[in-house]
Write a sequence for this structure.
């Protein structure tokens, strides 16, 4: 996961920067201020307790904050990570954050302090007050908020300085300049984490070719469950023998389209590969997850390796082009059993649509996805993906 907190006085530009970060890195955005305002709008018990404190520019109690944070973090733990805005705001909340992250087997990568002078904060907030509709963006309350910041929030920096994950940015720069600095910080953080790429696409979209090339060029381990299972059968391992016996007793049929080897045989193999990154910078999954169950299993396995970050590519190819490609493949050395007739090709594509697309959709909802135009030569498609990777081979992977 990539977990980041934006720190700085009110008006530093945390909310503005968050918008781009959330989109770019697929993080789940948590602004305690927004959450509290929502509680107030729904007139909940928490909202009623927080209302007056916020109106006067004070800080809501840590007791309330821990309740809302625990809920929102647990409900969204499937994301690439969290982006915190306006939290932690007290020393106690820094400990709370550490505990909440630990519970998810992860930690905060860094706290980015966007530093601006007090008077700059006041003038920005007064300006924002003209359009924000926020009752706390007026001069008296702004001064109170800044006093609270100096007294209770600034000490939080020591907590993170001691842990070595505090980074400072000059917030007086332009929005774009601050954005660039944050981007550099996060790319550096990403270079320390394992990157997982998941390639989604219909059969014939080029996943294997692209996956292998990406793996080679970005030093990732290519995980194709189909290939792994074939290998197990070939070397007659215990799992290989079990698969063979499923063929022998008819539970699996060789030339039947879309049959899946049972998860209890596949999962240990994937787990073994994940446990031994072998100097690789991460993994690239092709053909997995293929069912709803597998998508939960994969998320669980990846979560066990806390320093992971997932990027999902969806390779889009029009159906007629897929059929043409598969038919052509059927005449080549890399032919699959389902490439041999139009009937089988269509059956395989339909099967993919019915079984795998719902999994894509669930996965994409959680992790977000990057759509790639899959038409043209494989080199062209590869270059489109490489462009989106935005990780320079030398610097980051
Ligand atoms: P913000 O939108 O982050 O400027 O927050 C608006 C107001 O919500 C603050 O002035 C506080 O009253 C309250 N608030 C937001 N986050 C926290 C927090 N982590 N701890 C305590 N109070 C908070």
């Amino acid at each position: 996961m990539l977990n980041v907190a934006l720190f700085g006085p009110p008006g530093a530009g945390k909310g503005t920067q968050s918008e781009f970060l959330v989109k770019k890195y697929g993080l789940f955005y948590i602004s305690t201020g927004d959450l509290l305002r929502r509680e107030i709008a729904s007139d909940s018990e928490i909202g009623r307790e927080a209302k007056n404190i916020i109106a006067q520019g004070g800080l809501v109690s840590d007791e309330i904050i821990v309740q809302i944070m625990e809920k929102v973090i647990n409900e969204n733990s499937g994301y690439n990570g969290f982006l915190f805005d306006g939290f932690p705001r007290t020393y106690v909340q820094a400990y709370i954050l550490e505990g909440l992250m630990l519970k998810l087997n992860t930690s905060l990568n860094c706290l980015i302090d966007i530093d601006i002078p007090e008077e700059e904060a006041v003038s920005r907030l007064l300006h924002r007050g003209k359009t924000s509709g926020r009752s706390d963006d007026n001069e008296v309350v702004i001064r109170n908020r800044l006093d609270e910041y100096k007294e209770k929030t600034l000490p939080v920096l020591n907590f993170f300085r001691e842990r070595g994950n505090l980074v400072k940015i000059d917030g007086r720069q332009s929005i774009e300049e601050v954005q660039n600095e944050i981007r550099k910080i996060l790319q550096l953080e990403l270079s320390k984490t394992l990157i997982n790429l998941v390639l989604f696409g219909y059969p014939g979209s080029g996943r294997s070719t692209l996956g292998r090339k990406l793996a080679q060029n970005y030093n990732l381990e290519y995980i194709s469950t189909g290939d792994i299972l074939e290998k197990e059968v070939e070397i007659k391992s215990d799992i290989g023998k079990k698969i063979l016996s499923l063929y022998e007793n008819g539970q699996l049929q060789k030339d039947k389209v879309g049959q899946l080897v049972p998860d209890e045989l596949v999962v240990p193999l994937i787990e073994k590969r994940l446990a031994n990154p072998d100097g690789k910078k991460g993994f690239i999954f092709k053909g997995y997850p293929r069912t709803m169950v597998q998508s939960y299993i994969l998320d669980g396995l990846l979560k066990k390796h806390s320093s992971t970050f997932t990027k999902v590519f969806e390779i889009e190819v029009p159906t007629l082009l897929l059929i043409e490609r598969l038919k052509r493949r059927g005449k080549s050395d890399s032919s699959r059993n389902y490439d041999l007739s139009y009937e089988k090709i269509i059956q395989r594509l339909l099967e993919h649509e019915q079984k795998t697309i719902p999994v894509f959709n669930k996965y994409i909802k959680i992790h977000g996805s990057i759509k790639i135009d899959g038409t043209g030569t494989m080199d062209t498609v590869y270059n489109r993906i490489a462009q989106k990777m935005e990780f320079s081979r030398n610097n980051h992977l």
